[in-house]
Amino acid sequence: MHASLITQQPLTTDVVEENVSLFGEVDPGEPEPRLSVRVSVSLRFFDLVGLLAFQPEMMLTASDLLDSEALAEALRFALVNSDMRQIREYAELARTALSHPRRPFHAYTRLVAEAVTRTFGIGTPQPPAPLAPVLPLAVPAGVRAVAA
Q1: H-type helices in 7-147, by residue range?
Q2: How far, in Å, CA of 90 to CA of 95, rounded?
Q3: Which residue from 8, 66, 101, 134 puts its CA 20 to 30 A from 33's CA?
Q4: First CA to last CA across the chain, in angstroms?
C-alpha cells in the first residue's frame, strides 16, 4: 500500500466558516467565508528556535517563553508569516547564535531554545558519532594495488 494512504496527510481541509479571522477566531467584520486548512510540516530544533527568535514580527517576552500556549501560538503565527527560505535563514541564525556565546542575541536565543525544549520536547541535535578509523589496506607482496 502506498505510504500516503496510511500516513497522516500533509494537508487537510475542514469546514467553510463565515465571520472568522485567518486563525479561525470569531471576526464579525470579516465579509468573506474562509476554508479551514491544516498543514502538517516537520520542523527541526533550529527551525523552531529560528522562527521564534528571529521572525521579524515575533517579539516574545520572558513570560511568553514560560507559557506553552503562548509559545505554540507564536509558532503558528511565525509559520504563517514565513516561507521555506526564511525558515532556513532563521534556523541558521539560531545555530550561529547558539554556537558562539559572544555573538549578539546568544543569551536571548538560548532562552528561546530552552523554551522550545520545554514546550515541544525537542532539543539540540547531538553531533553524529565519530566514524571508526580507516586502517590502511595491506597489499600482499606481488599484488599491485589499482586505484578505483
Answers
A1: 45-54, 62-66, 68-80, 84-99, 106-120
A2: 9
A3: 8
A4: 40
Output phi, psi for 31, to 5 deg: -80, -20
The rounded distance, in Å, linking the Cα atoms of 104 and 65 is 19
Contact 32, 106 (CB under 8 A): no
* pTM higher than the cut 0.90: no
Q: Is the alpha carbon torsion for 51, 56, 62, 67 positive or negative?
A: negative
In 3-state terms, what secondary structure has residue 83?
A: coil
Phi and psi, residue 117, nearest 5°: -65, -45
Whole-angstrom distance, CA of residue 109 vs CA of residue 115: 10
pLDDT digits (tens, 9 = 90+) for 87-125: 999 999 999 999 988 877 899 999 999 999 999 999 988
Please give the Cα distance from 132 to 74 (Å, whole number).
Answer: 43
What is the overall mean pLDDT for the chain? Answer: 83
Q: What is the pLDDT of residues 12-40, one digit of tens each?
A: 778 788 888 877 788 888 888 888 788 88
- Residue 84: how many CB atoms within 10 A of its CB? 9
